[in-house]
Design a protein that fits this description.
Shape: globular
CATH superfamily of the largest domain: Conserved hypothetical protein from pyrococcus furiosus pfu- 392566-001, ParB domain
Number of domains: 2
Number of strands: 7
Distance between the termini: 47 Å
Helix content: 25-40%
Largest sheet: 5 strands, mixed
Length: 204
């Protein structure tokens, strides 16, 4: 097993990337697609060079994404062929069960479904396009961009916020009127109920 100390950059086809989580916020993916389309084409390469995708090499040499799942899914939909990845660790020698357990214990895995329930490793999709929509993850992203909480280095921090909102807001209401729910969620994010979450900013 080899852990990389220096960034090793290489281009990898987006469609071959393997996810390490079950869900994404499809509304969040759509927003990234819109921003990608509005960018001048000549700036595409520079953008991709600034957004390196951290991966680990797994069994059979597959590239497993540790971050930027939403961006990768958006680029896949937009027909981008390759992204630059940086290899964080080479775990290719591990058997599949040992590989998943290692990722899980390093905090490099998020095996939770769209209802916030932990699932077996086998439920993690093989392809980015098969990840399931979690609208509460999109809500968490919207609240962070609005200044409801700060970006944090804690692994899967926005999923922790998504789970917080999931326990406070009904999914049907979120799906019916996303913008109205954002206002309520912003207030919740500033409340003392959320002070244990990464990036909590306190009352404004």
């Amino acid at each position: 097993m080899q852990l990389s100390r220096e960034p090793l950059l290489k281009p990898v086809p987006v469609r071959t990337l393997r996810p390490t989580q079950i869900t994404v916020g499809l509304r969040e993916v759509g927003e990234m697609q819109r921003r990608w389309r509005s960018r001048p084409q000549k700036k595409d390469i520079k953008f991709l060079e600034r957004h390196l995708v951290p991966v680990v090499l797994g069994p059979r040499g597959d590239h497993y994404v540790l971050d930027h799942h939403h961006l990768c899914r958006a680029l896949l939909h937009e027909g981008v062929r390759e992204v630059l990845v940086t290899i964080v660790a080479d775990l290719g020698r591990l058997k599949k069960d040992a590989f998943w357990i290692y990722l899980d214990n390093r905090g490099w895995l998020h095996p939770y479904d769209e209802k916030g329930r932990r699932r077996p490793y086998a439920d993690i999709p093989r392809e980015l396009s098969d990840m399931v929509d979690d609208p509460f993850r999109s809500l968490a992203g919207a609240i962070r961009r609005a200044g409801g909480f700060a970006k944090d280095t804690t692994a899967f921090s926005e999923f922790l916020w998504a789970d917080f909102f999931r326990r406070k807001i009904k999914r049907k209401k979120l799906e019916h009127d996303f913008d109205a729910v954002v206002k309520k969620a912003f207030v919740l994010a500033k409340s003392k109920d959320a002070d244990y979450l990464p990036g909590w900013c306190g009352p404004s």
